[in-house]
């Protein structure tokens, strides 16, 4: 699992690559701590490089969203592929969070 | 004394080898230098000695050569008769003690037209003198060398040495000088004046030559005959060339040639009587074309050098011995604490951390090592103590986790068939736990005569939080289901309860269904869980039409959709957790939906228990040796 966070306009973009399983979910959460400590209220997850996500990984999205909503912001999901996209779909995440096909489109909704 | 390949050896060998090499080089240079110096000194000494000897010989010979000259002047100046001549000869011998005899030999009839021979010869006899007239029938002196050679050459010359036959076996040589008288305006050869000399003094001078211990001098004539030589039998009997011939020694012959050619110099020499190897210094002697040779035996010449060599070698060897001793002692002082340290380390390795490591007082690297050992030992003690504490703590936690796992597993129903009074209802479920505590759950309950509620879910995360959340979820669902609510309402209720005060952000995916055995209806709702598979009687396996609902615990006040289908006899519903489709093999490939559908296709006629066990077996054999990351939970419902 790799994650890097960049500022794009008034939002942060977190690019997540590789596998987020039970073990790497903790590292995933830690990697986002920086993003949550900043002023930006909006966080776009670029999931184009994400290969696998477990339920422990999904929890990180939920807690992140909860913290940003408390600040008046939210998260956006972008470019989930294949089995990852299906996991999001099945678990109802796409009803909880907006998902767009590209990062740019996701940024445009903010 | 030195252990092979030990520190002593590794330290000693190069030091000794280096020292030996240095010694050898110094010795060789010193030896060569000394040899050169000795040879040069000997050569210089030989040269001086030889010159001195030659000079002494010349000191004797030169006056002798003056004698005939003086006689000539006397004869020419004064008109002398026979008596006067004899007187002159007597006084000459008297004045010149080194002259043995002198003669004035005239040409035939030159002195007295009446006498063919006229040659008065005065020689010593005992303490007095003896007068002889040479010439006669038996002795035509005109044909003797001493007369003939000066006559023919017109020059003075020394005869070859000879033994005086009359004078008592004395080695003699004769100097002959021609004299001339004016006749009709031109000088006319008139006769020869001679002076004999005994060569006994020559022998004495040469005998005084003492070089080294047994070195000696010798003189050869211009023909190579030995005139003076310590080997008396050689004198006049042998020449240097006859010795060379007898010994078949070309080198000696070459030396002989150098000698009669009047050369000087220092050369290797093989002509010793005893045939010892040696050197010779040559120098010509006097005006006689004689040659003086001084012989140096090599072994005596090199005696100093040998002494030097013996001293140097013994000094070098004893130095090396001392060095070996020193190296050994030094190495021992280094290795002894090392050996002690090694023994202590071995002891320590058996687990004895109470042993004290002796630290040498030298303060060197070994002492530092010993101190490091002590430090390591103390660190190990601390570390082991901490490790024991940590292990105990971990075991404590692990046993609690095992208990938690047991409690969690105890919550799951394991009695099948669940409702023996419902013969057509075939439900079987299995949860194969991963090593770590997971959060999968399943259960079922009877709502009334005809209706059975069943559910299967998966709590996010692992460990005790997941187990607790799972227990809470199971309790909530069973409570809610018992109220007789429909699946969508059950999910809504449970979601509401879970979402409230869910600070940890835990959630659960859940599929919930209620079947009516009589009407063969199935009502179902899905809270973010994997879509179950519908097994048709034909063997077809398809995903149940979805009701995309949100997982439970994320957000309050969420409505869930509900669907209803009617199942034909022999049809069944297969539920599973993502531990099935996301099981991985050694190459990290997923088991996947496709493989699951493919596996289920062949199971249309199997009982629920058979389907469950078959799928579980398939997943496990797919995973192979890859560790099971998540709980594998499967449930099959047929009615």
Can you put this structure into words, describing what you see?
- The complex is a heterodimer of chains A (110) and B (639).
- In chain A, 45% of the residues lie in helices and 34% in strands.
- Chain A contains five helices and five strands.
- Chain A has a five-stranded mixed sheet.
- In chain A, helix 2 links the parallel strand 3 and strand 4.
- Chain A starts with a strand and ends with a helix.
- In chain B, strands 1, 2, 3, 4, 5, 6 and 7 form a seven-stranded antiparallel sheet that branches. Chain B has a five-stranded antiparallel sheet with strand order 9-8-12-11-10, sandwiched between helices.
- In chain B, strand 6 (170-183) and strand 7 (186-198) form a beta hairpin.
- With 639 residues, chain B is of the alpha+beta class.
- Among the domains of chain B are: 78-201, PAS domain (Beta-Lactamase, 2-Layer Sandwich), CATH 3.30.450; 209-301, Beta-Lactamase (2-Layer Sandwich); 412-638, Phosphatase 2c, domain 1.
- The interface between A and B is medium-sized, with 22 and 28 residues.
Question: Care to give the gist of this entry?
Answer:
The complex is a heterodimer of chains A (110) and B (639). Chain A has 110 residues and is of the alpha/beta class. Chain A is built from 5 helices and 5 strands, in the order ββαβαβααβα.
SSE topology string of chain A:
EEHEHEHHEH
Query: Largest beta sheet of chain B, briefly?
Result: 7 strands, antiparallel
- Overall geometry of chain A comes to globular
Please report the distance between the alpha carbons of the first and last residues of chain B: 94 Å
Q: Share of helix among residues of chain B?
A: 40-55%
> Any guess at the CATH architecture of the domain at 412-638 in chain B?
4-Layer Sandwich
Number of DSSP strand runs of chain A: 5
């Amino acid at each position: 699992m790799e994650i890097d966070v960049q500022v794009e306009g008034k939002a942060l973009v977190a690019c997540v690559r590789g596998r987020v399983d039970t073990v790497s979910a903790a590292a995933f959460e830690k990697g986002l701590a920086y993003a949550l400590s900043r002023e930006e209220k909006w966080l776009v997850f670029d999931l184009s490089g994400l290969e696998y996500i477990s339920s422990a990984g999904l929890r990180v999205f939920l807690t992140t969203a909860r913290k940003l909503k408390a600040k008046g912001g939210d998260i956006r999901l972008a470019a989930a592929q294949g089995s990852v996209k299906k996991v999001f779909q099945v678990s109802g995440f796409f009803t909880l969070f907006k998902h767009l096909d590209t990062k740019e489109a996701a940024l445009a909704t903010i | 004394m030195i252990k092979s390949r030990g520190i002593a050896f590794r330290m000693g060998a190069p030091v000794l080898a280096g020292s030996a090499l240095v010694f050898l080089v110094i010795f060789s240079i010193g030896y060569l230098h000394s040899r050169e110096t000795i040879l040069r000194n000997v050569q210089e000494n030989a040269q001086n000695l030889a010159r001195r000897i030659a000079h002494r010989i010349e000191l004797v010979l030169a006056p002798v050569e003056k004698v005939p000259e003086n006689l000539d002047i006397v004869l020419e100046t004064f008109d002398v008769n026979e008596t006067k001549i004899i007187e002159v000869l007597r006084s000459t011998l008297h004045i010149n003690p080194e002259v043995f005899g002198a003669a004035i030999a005239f040409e035939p009839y030159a002195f007295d037209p009446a006498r063919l021979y006229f040659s008065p010869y005065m020689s010593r006899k005992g303490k007095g003198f003896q007068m002889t007239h040479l010439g006669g029938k038996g002795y035509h002196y005109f044909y003797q060398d001493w007369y003939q050679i000066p006559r023919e050459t017109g020059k003075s010359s020394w005869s070859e040495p000879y033994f005086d036959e009359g004078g008592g076996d004395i080695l003699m040589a004769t100097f002959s000088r021609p004299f001339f008288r004016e006749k009709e305006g031109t000088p006319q050869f008139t006769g020869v004046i001679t002076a004999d000399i005994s060569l006994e003094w020559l022998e004495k001078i040469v005998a005084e030559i003492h070089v080294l211990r047994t070195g000696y001098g010798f003189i050869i004539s211009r023909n190579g005959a030995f005139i003076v030589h310590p080997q008396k039998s050689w004198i006049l009997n042998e020449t240097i060339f006859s010795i060379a011939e007898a010994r078949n020694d070309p080198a000696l012959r070459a030396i002989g040639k150098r000698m009669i050619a009047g050369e000087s110099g220092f050369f290797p020499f093989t002509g010793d009587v005893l045939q010892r190897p040696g050197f010779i210094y040559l120098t010509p002697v006097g005006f006689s074309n004689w040659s003086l040779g001084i012989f140096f035996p090599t072994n005596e010449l090199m005696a100093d050098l040998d002494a030097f060599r013996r001293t140097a070698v013994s000094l070098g060897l004893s130095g090396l011995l001392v060095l070996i001793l020193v190296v050994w002692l030094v190495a021992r002082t280094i290795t002894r604490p090392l050996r002690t340290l090694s023994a202590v380390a071995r002891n320590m390795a058996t687990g004895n951390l109470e042993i004290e490591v002796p630290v040498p007082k030298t303060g060197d690297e070994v002492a530092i090592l010993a101190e490091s050992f002590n430090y390591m030992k103390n660190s190990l003690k601390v570390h082991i103590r901490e490790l024991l504490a940590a292990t105990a703590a971990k075991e404590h936690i692990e046993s609690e986790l095992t208990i938690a796992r047991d409690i969690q597993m105890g919550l799951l129903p394991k009695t099948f068939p669940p409702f023996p009074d419902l013969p057509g209802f075939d439900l079987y479920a299995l949860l194969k736990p991963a090593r770590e505590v997971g959060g999968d759950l399943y259960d079922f309950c009877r709502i009334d005569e005809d209706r059975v509620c069943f559910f299967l879910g998966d709590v996010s995360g692992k460990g005790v939080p997941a187990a607790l959340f799972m227990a809470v979820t199971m309790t909530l669902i069973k409570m809610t289901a018992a109220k007789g609510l429909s699946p969508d309402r059950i999910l809504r209720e449970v979601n509401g309860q879970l979402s409230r005060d869910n600070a940890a952000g835990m959630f659960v995916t859940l599929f919930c269904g209620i079947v009516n055995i009589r009407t063969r209806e199935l009502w179902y709702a899905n809270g973010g869980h994997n879509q179950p598979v519908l097994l048709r009687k034909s063997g077809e396996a398809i995903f149940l039409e979805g009701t995309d609902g949100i997982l439970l615990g994320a957000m309050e006040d969420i409505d869930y959709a509900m669907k209803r289908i009617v199942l034909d006899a022999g049809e069944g519903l297969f539920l599973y957790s993502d531990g099935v489709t996301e099981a991985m093999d050694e190459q990290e490939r997923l088991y996947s939906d496709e493989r699951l559908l493919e596996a289920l296709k062949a199971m249309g006629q199997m009982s629920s228990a058979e389907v469950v066990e078959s799928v579980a077996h398939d997943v496990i054999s797919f995973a192979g040796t890859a560790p099971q990351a998540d709980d594998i939970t499967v449930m099959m419902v047929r009615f």
